[in-house]
Amino acid sequence: QGQLVESGGGLVQPGGSLRLSCAASGRSFSNYGMGWFRQPPGREREFVAALRLSGGSTMYADSVKGRFTISRDNAKTTVYLQMNSLKPDDTARYYCAAALVVSTRATMYPYWGRGTQVTVSS
Predict the structure, then answer these.
(1) Which of 2, 13, 18 has its CA nearest to residue 112?
(2) Count of alpha carbons within 13 angstroms of residue 9, beta-carbon side
(3) What is the CA angle 68-73-77, rounded to 5?
(4) Looking at residue 59, what DSSP letter applies?
(5) By three-state DSSP, how is residue 5 classified?
(6) What backbone phi and psi angles, to 5 degrees, belong to 59?
(7) Which residues sit opposite 23 in a β-bridge?
(8) Which residues, at least 6 apart from 26, have a Cβ–Cβ distance to it below 8 Å?
(9) d(CA 103, CA 72)
(10) What is the chain's mean pLDDT, rounded?
(11) Among candidate residues 113, 58, 115, 68, the one with its CA nearest the CA of residue 89
């Protein structure tokens, strides 16, 4: 069984930045594409960004495009989500997930971390 562990969340003021990390352990996720999702309070989990294994191309939700960047280290053991120009609407619990074929649909990801909380507030 593999594990995905998110870190880097916290409280940040509007306009600020955070970088989330997702570290893989226990199994190799180097052959998987990776995604980030978030769940705002009282709402369903929603797609944020994904990184395809093949070619390394990326996908972003319209709400974060131009502000968030997903990336991966060369060893493919850690995935990052750089979040800039944060807004109160970005407040949510952020989850990373792994799948052989990435998608905007959460149900397509068999492996999930437990999440890290991001709160954007003044």
Answers:
(1) 2
(2) 18
(3) 110
(4) E
(5) strand
(6) -135, 145
(7) 5, 78
(8) 1, 2, 3
(9) 17
(10) 93
(11) 68
Distance CA 40, CA 117 (A): 10
Helix or strand (DSSP H, E) at 48: strand 46-51
> How high is the pLDDT of residue 26?
77
| Closest of 60, 108, 105, 106 to residue 84, by C-alpha | 60
Tokens of 17: 């930045």
CA gap 96, 88 in Å, rounded: 20
Q: Which two tokens stand for residue 82?
A: 């750089």
Number of Cβ within 10 Å of residue 104's Cβ equals 15
CA 29-30-35 angle, to 5 degrees, is 65
Which of the residues in the chain have pLDDT under 50? none
Largest CA distance in the chain: 40
Residues 25 and 47 sit within 8 Å (Cβ to Cβ): no
Q: How many angstroms from the chain centroid is the CA of residue 77?
A: 14
Residues 65-87 have pLDDT tens digits of 999 999 998 777 899 999 999 99
Q: Structure tokens of 73?
A: 């280290």
Partners of 78 in beta bridges: 23
